[in-house]
């Protein structure tokens, strides 16, 4: 089982990625192979619906292929001006329901305030329109949340919440595959 991760932050010290790594580790522990598509290392061009050659670009090809092959996803975005980041939205414009329909997705965000509610709601709206199964547990890193040296959260409740996102994606993939086999 393959879980694809997309984090919409270009920050070298991304708080969103720090939180996502907790969920990623939980997904790996639950038995998933996890692959991160790092937009900082592999930038995508600006999406242009009229550019017929856009899918021939190396990073775009790799991104679309990863997202198509994935059984589930962990997606994250920092909250910029009460919404998802531009690079996150741009990346999603290259893919659609072909990649997300009937696949589990865990959502993670980070905020300059207590909770990235608007970002999580925007992500939920987008993923619902693409027919994904968004797991009910969301995870948000608020302002002032700290991490230990090993990458875990200082706050045990935060640690458990982010781990649950990773486990829930894996468990839903397993349940959906099992259900498909029964038919």
TrEMBL record:
Keywords (A to Z) from UniProt: Oxidoreductase
InterPro entries according to UniProt: Flavodoxin/NO_synth, Flavoprotein-like_sf, FMN_Rdtase-like_dom, NAD(P)H-dep_reductase
Main enzyme class: oxidoreductase
Keyword Acyltransferase listed: no
Occurrences of domain Flavodoxin-like (ranges): 5-170
GO molecular function, one term: oxidoreductase activity
Protein family: Belongs to the azoreductase type 2 family.
PANTHER family: CHROMATE REDUCTASE, NAD(P)H-DEPENDENT FMN REDUCTASE LOT6
The protein's name in its UniProt record: NADPH-dependent FMN reductase
High-level lineage: Bacteria, Bacillati, Bacillota, Bacilli, Bacillales
């Amino acid at each position: 089982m393959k879980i694809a991760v997309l984090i919409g932050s270009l920050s070298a010290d991304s708080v969103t990625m720090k939180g996502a790594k907790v969920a990623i580790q939980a997904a790996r522990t639950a038995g998933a192979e996890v692959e991160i598509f790092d937009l900082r290392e592999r930038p995508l061009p600006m999406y242009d619906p009229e550019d017929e050659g856009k899918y021939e670009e190396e990073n775009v090809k790799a991104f679309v292929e990863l997202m198509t092959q994935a059984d589930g996803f962990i997606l994250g975005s920092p909250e910029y001006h009460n919404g998802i980041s531009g690079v996150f939205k741009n990346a999603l414009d290259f893919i659609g329901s072909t990649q997300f329909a009937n696949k589990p997705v865990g959502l993670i965000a980070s905020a300059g305030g207590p909770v990235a509610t608007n970002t999580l709601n925007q992500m939920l709206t987008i993923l619902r329109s693409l027919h994904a199964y968004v797991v009910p547990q969301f995870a948000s890193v608020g302002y002032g949340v700290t991490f230990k040296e090993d990458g875990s959260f200082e706050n045990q409740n935060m640690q458990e919440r982010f781990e649950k996102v990773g486990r829930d994606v894996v468990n839903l993939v397993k349940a959906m595959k099992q259900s498909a086999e029964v038919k």
